[in-house]
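One record is given unchanged without comment:
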Amino acid sequence: MEANQILRRLGFVLRRHRERMKLTQEAFADEHGLNRTYYSAIERGTQNLSILNVARIARALDLSLSRLLREAEAIDLEVASRQASKPLRRGRPPGRKSNWR
């Protein structure tokens, strides 16, 4: 397995768990003391990160390091890259009108 595949797999797993927590990349990074652009590069699989930062992010996601790495190893990159994630929605919920006039 190539290094960039490992990073991309890890990025997909991190993104899935962050979205499960209903947090944007910016909110997650700010809440856990990470630079937003650094965290974004991690999720894209373009940033090589230390095991200490992987452990820190796993703890922030309330996952064990072993589970995070196991999920990253098991993910199918072709299937994961075809599945479009739903971006977190900002603003008022769909179907609700503003009371402002």
